[in-house]
Amino acid sequence: xxxVALFAPCYLALARPADAAAARxxxxxxxxxxxxxxxxxxxxxxxxxxxxREARRVAAAAIRAVREFDAVVVPSGSxxxxxxxxxxxxxxxxxxxxxxxxxxxxxxxxxxxxxxLERVSFRLRGVVAYHDSCHxxxxxxxxxxxxxxLGRVDGLEVRRMRYEAECCGFGGAFCVKLPEVAAAMAAAxxxxxxxxxxxxxxxxxxxxxxxxxxxxxxxxxxxEGWTVAELLARSLA
Length: 237
Hints:
By secondary structure, the chain is α/β, with parallel strands linked by helices. Helices cover 51% and strands 18% of the residues. It is globular, with a radius of gyration of 17 Å.
């Protein structure tokens, strides 16, 4: 039985903690011993802002918190990419940082490759649109794996968006620095999702979904965002 740290991103823990519980339910169904690690940050906001000292301080606390686990599972492409790739950048001489970075897996990638996956059934009737987060698509190359995982859900129809490769406009500090541009990008993404005929949009990243949901409300569109973890938890047979 693998001992897994479920590293819940700070925005997920604050905005929609039920998503962390959903991810945990799936991991436990797969047979893992799971401990949820919350109240910490991977360091990405400070890192992207160029505040390396603050990023190191924050990331060091996260690294200490997950030091005893077989795997560090992160239900976010953005945060998983930061931990897997940039913890080494922040601590180039640290064997512990390198070891923990190597242990990081994005949630869907971990589930898709789990040795017990064939023993678990997923059933959920419905239609969803799929949104790739930029980090999941470009940095972690998760697209086909996520779609394959969703394809295991009996009764689920996944519809691809016309402009699926385009950013939703969230981008962390980007939406704060350039709110008008970010809002326009989110509106375009929400409209693209609605054009598929789906009323649910699914992604690896809650941050994207919250941004798209807000745009959808502004446009009067009926569109609800689910993380892949939430969808899988709902569909556990």
